[in-house]
Amino acid sequence: MYAIMPESKMYDPGFDIRPTFEPMGFMYGEDVFGPEPENRRLDDIRKSLMDPGTGGPDIVYTIAMDVGRKQHRAILEELHLLFGVVTYAAGKLGREPIRSQGHIHKISPYSGWSTPEVYEIWTGEAIIYMQETAEDDPGRCFAVYAKPGDVVIVPPNWAHATISANSREPLTFGAWCDRDYGFVYDGVRKHKGIAWFPVFDEEGIIRWQANPHYETSQLVCKSPRQYPDLGIEPGKSIYQTFESNPEVFLYVPRPQLVAAAWENFEP
């Protein structure tokens, strides 16, 4: 028996997929394809945590890469697009929220670029954290606070991590990715994590602590902006946007098509 997120608490992604809990995973409708989800465990991400010895849920999150309507499978492959979905467990990692360890997207052999990612929040509360580099100087750092229906875009080459801002409920999000997706962890692991650690205070509010393994930086906390220049339509899911115009997200596998958009990018 699976526990399923009630429709009333979930943003409509525009196709028939539902996150499940206990165990975590996804249920696909009859017209939807998708793989068996893969679990990421606490031991997989310990080295990137502020306290690597902390406790927390054994399965931190579950991920299914390459989902969508069966009728779109061929065009997704043709356009080199991939839609992925992720659910995070409720709870905490010691004083830290449930989160990914942080990475940069690898250089794609398809485009020769590190590729962007288009996030859409479905359940829970998210913080999409991003920094310009994973070098000693992390550059500009942003924490973008997002709720169901919000879209956040991470540009090419930036290190980023996804954080669950509400420990009482799971976080689920979908994302447009390059079909040759891959992750580079070296810089983040070298610095023992991202440049700013999210930590719950005694009242359950996330505060930020600078990671001393980086040079001094400033963190900007903000709400998501609008992205009309990148094809995002308010009130319309990113899958429905693709369905209306399959080429609207071509800049995900081919970021050079909108090269100017990535210069001095602000999320």
TrEMBL record:
Organism field:
Pseudobacter ginsenosidimutans
Q: What keywords are assigned to this protein? A: Gluconeogenesis, Glycolysis, Isomerase
- This one is known as glucose-6-phosphate isomerase
Please provide the Gene Ontology terms (biological process) for this protein.
gluconeogenesis; glycolytic process
**Record flagged with keyword Nucleus:** no
The positions making up the signal sequence are none
> GO cellular-component terms in the record?
cytoplasm
Q: One GO MF term, please?
A: glucose-6-phosphate isomerase activity
Name the chemical reaction catalysed here.
alpha-D-glucose 6-phosphate = beta-D-fructose 6-phosphate
Statement: the UniProt record of this protein carries the keyword Isomerase: yes
Q: Which InterPro entries does this chain map to?
A: G6P_isomerase_prok (IPR010551), RmlC-like_jellyroll (IPR014710), RmlC_Cupin_sf (IPR011051)
Enzyme's top EC category: isomerase
> Which pathway does the protein contribute to?
Carbohydrate degradation; glycolysis; D-glyceraldehyde 3-phosphate and glycerone phosphate from D-glucose: step 2/4
Give the EC number(s) under which this enzyme is classified: 5.3.1.9
Stretches assigned to the Glucose-6-phosphate isomerase prokaryote domain: 57-206
Q: What family does this belong to? A: Belongs to the archaeal-type GPI family.
